[in-house]
Amino acid sequence: MRARVLIRPKDGILDPQGQAVERALPALGFDGVANVHVGRLIELDVEDASQVPQMCERLLANPLIEDYEVVELTGEAA
Amino acid sequence: MRFGVVRFPGSCDEVDALMACRRFADAELLWHGDRELDGIDAVVVPGGFSYGDYLRVGAIARFSPLMESVIEFAHEGGPVLGICNGFQVLCEAGLLPGALLPNDSLRFVCRQVEVIVENPDTPFTRACAVGDRLSIPVKHTTGRYYAPPGTLPDDQVVLRYAPGDNPNGSMDDVAGVCSEGGNVMGLMPHPEHAVDLLTGSADGGRLFESLAMVPA
Question: In what order do the strands lie in the sheet containing A2-9?
Answer without folding.
Answer: A40-45, A2-9, A66-73
